[in-house]
Design goal:
mainly alpha
Length: 276
Amino acid sequence: MKSKHNKKRNTAFVFEALSREATVAIIKGDHQTKEKVVSIVRKHFTSDSLLKKDLECYRSLYENQDLDETTSKKIVEAVMAAKRLIDPDGLFKQQTEIINDINKDLSPATFNNFVPNYKTLATIAKMFNTNSPKQSVMLETKIIDGMTGVIEEQKMEAIDSLTFTTFTKKFNDKYNNSLLKEQKELLNHYISSFSHDDLETKIFLNRELGRLKKSLSEAVEVKDIANDPEMVRKTNAVRERLKTLSNETSLNESTLLTILKTQELVKEIYDDASNS
């Protein structure tokens, strides 16, 4: 008999659903909702919470891609050992508390947010909870297959029309059904930074700003831009703006939106150049 997956008890799904709730709020300029999400994340995903430890078990499996089979198997073994050290009753209690806070402070609809890697998170949850040796092996194999290959994420076609329209406006009327890979990574770092002073976020931010500045410096040599003095001026202005962001010590909402738009701009520049 197949065990039913309860997404509200899937710590990684809950975190990702909150991430998308915050992302939509940021893009819409809904500061009240964004602050509610921040408050919930800070309250429940502290460094010593069982939810945070459980989330790290999930992340070790779904954030590690393109690995060799031996390394993947070792990671699965280490994760399963770490998972066994988490008190199930204590985790259940903390899950109940965050579910209640989400229902009370946000909305039960938060649990309906579209999470692109939902199937992967459900598979991991089933592996954690199964008592069947056969099913355990089958699920581990499926997870390892995902870690050793590139899993194609589902298109974000389930986003409702209001959210879709909002994203369209904020991304210069050109939001094409899915965020860029680098935009997703930036948003995940931003949401993670709510719960603690995240060194990884700072490292990623510096690396991404460096990449964007280099891309914009090279962009002025692209034919369509080089032949247009106004485009050269605007491109250099964006690059100078990024230089000022390099001095910031935290990733705030304004900085986030600037980087998201610049990521889209850089992609458009080089896509247009390759198609011309």
